[in-house]
Amino acid sequence: MAHILVVDDEESIRALIREVLSLSSHTFEEAGNGAEALERIRATKYDLVIMDRNMPRMDGIQALTLLRASPQFKDLKVLMCTSSSVTKEVDEAFAAGANDYILKPINLQALVKKVAKALGA
Predict the structure, then answer these.
(1) How many angstroms separate the CA atoms of 35 and 111, rounded?
(2) What is the pLDDT of residues 65-96, one digit of tens each?
(3) Angstrom distance (rounded) from CA 86 to CA 91
(4) What is the rounded distance in angstroms from the CA atom of residue 53 to the CA atom of residue 107?
(5) Is 64 within 8 Å of 97 (Cβ atoms)?
(6) Beta pairing partners, 79
(7) What CATH number is attached to the domain comprising 94?
């Protein structure tokens, strides 16, 4: 069982991810943007962060770049969600420190597999 932070500005996406992954007995917290995610990550230990790339206030790339600048979070697993498979966007996610990415609309089987892989299951 893992403790996961789901970061997306769309509540429906957060709910979908929660619903699918809760079948594996994971626990969840949520954030609606990158700034809120950073606050939560600094206050709570997570096994995995699933973060949207495009959000208001602070996007996922900005948040991940700031997160990776702190040595205490260098090993935190982060899956970046992006609505584009454009190589540039995927490359930016990896350059910022993402461990992997998930395309939107989310393929639920791919999500479950990538989460299991990130958690070492």
Answers:
(1) 24
(2) 999 999 999 999 999 998 876 778 889 999 99
(3) 9
(4) 17
(5) yes
(6) 50, 100
(7) 3.40.50.2300
In the chain, the number of structural domains is 1
Alpha-carbon distance 54 to 47, whole Å? Answer: 22
Q: Which domain holds residue 89?
A: 3-118
Return phi, psi of residue 17, to 5°.
Answer: -60, -45
- Cβ neighbors of 9 (< 8 A, separation 6 or more) are 32, 33, 52, 55, 56
| CA pair distance 9, 86, nearest whole angstrom | 21
Nearest to 13, CA basis, from 111, 93, 94:
111
Beta strands in 21-99 (DSSP E): 27-31, 48-52, 77-82
pLDDT at 98 over 90: yes
Structure-block tokens of residue 84: 């584009």
Angstrom distance (rounded) from CA 30 to CA 18: 9
Give residue-wise pLDDT tens across range 7-29. Answer: 999 999 999 999 998 888 899 99
